[in-house]
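Listing S7. Sequence submitted for prediction.
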Amino acid sequence: MNAFEPGQINNVEEMKEENMVLETERLDDLDATKAEGNSFTVEDEKRLVRKLDLWLLPLMMITYFLQSYDKGIMSAATQFGFNSDLGLTRIIGHEADGTAITNNQKYSNASMIFYIGYLVGTYPMMYLSQHYPTSRVIAGATFLWGAVVMSTAGCHSYAGIMVNRFFLGFLESTVAPAFTVLVTFWWTREEQALRTSLWYCCVGVATTLSPLINYGLGQIHSSLKPWKPIFLILGAITVCWSFVLLFTLPDNPLTTKRLNEAERKIVISRLERNNAGTLTREFNKAQFFEAFRDYKLYSCTLIILLTGVPSGAIGTFGTVVINGFGFSHFDSLALTCPIGAITALTILFFGYVTRKWNNLRYLCIIVSALISIVGTVIAWTGPRSNRGLLFAGVFLIAVQVAAGALAVSLAASNMAGHTKKATVSATTFVGYCVGNVIGPEIFGASPGPVYHAGFMGSCICLCCVVVIAAVTWVLLRRENAKRNRVTGGTVHLHGVDEDLSDIQNKDFRYVL
């Protein structure tokens, strides 16, 4: 395929070194006339971007919403006798006022095994997504995990729920890594952070909407235990959604029938602006090993891992922790709604900020982590008599999820070469799994209702996020400056038929 030649980017030496990134000019700054060498106008490109946003983003957002909702059903089910029916919680004593001191180790294990399954499934699913049509792999996995959610209603023992949650995690591991790479197929690097934020924020949307929905479903009167209809109904919805994905989610821009030839040319031109490699089903062994020699992989993975500790703990123990503050079962469910809302809104806010102004992603990671550090300190050291203050601490902890979302977008935007991008994406979500294993384990091993060790551990993790983000920013800024000196400030674009990694391609500039 011949490379489609967009206009050259000139005068980059006039830009400040710290703002040097290989990105196209913003759409609203482009000439309204045809660019040199292009057969389309800025209006054509804007129409295409709107089409992609209205077509692809809803599919990704609803799928990730269902994934987040389905994995979190177990937390809501604890308010309807789930733990006692399956023997996941036991009372080990009482406080002076009669409050029960509980051991939740089995419950935390049931949460942990989901992420073990996710961890085991990540690389096999990455392999399948690269070698077979991505849309078919995602649709198939969605169908199967919906069936697993429905089968949870048949669990009646600790062993049964452990097996069930393992396979749920294994199947759900398909979506997030695949979406991270899929975003790079359709949007330019300057557009990717906001689009990633839009589907990633659905974890917060699920947390906002699910408590009240689950409470309503838990009121269904039938011969079944109150928690069982929740799994049956929501699992069935996911199964139905898998058929929508099968027929509407495209594989890549070069093969989809939903684009005409003119639109396809615009997509190819936009891909070339990214200087990020080709669309290919071939596994590049050199890029695979290069990914594991690249410090950016470990930076993104560690940020996602460390933010996964508090988010995994709150996701699993949120209702239990809030209930321990002295709130009723219904109030505990209802109060998780604003936690989900702040999660979604902060992800979108930082996504918008990084779309509006370049090179602020690492700064936004640091700011969101610092806000949540304050929250962990409040929940860790605040007086137990002031439950409003304690809840405010948990509320602030939710802000750090935005740091993980930004790290996901950086894993996509700062890597080139299809195999390398896929490998880095999968590895970052291995970090996500590990963090979500550690978080519930820390809280499970920390006696309720105070969970001091859990909040202290979360505070330490977020402090590490601040350090890692700052160091990575310095290293990438230096690398961009070095490349500017080597190339003399001249940046050349590479076609989608060149599968170069970001290290091989010296015209690649890193997003800060």
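Caption to Listing S7: primary sequence and predicted structure tokens for the chain studied. Residues 1-37 have pLDDT under 50 and may be disordered. The chain has one domain: 40-268+283-487.
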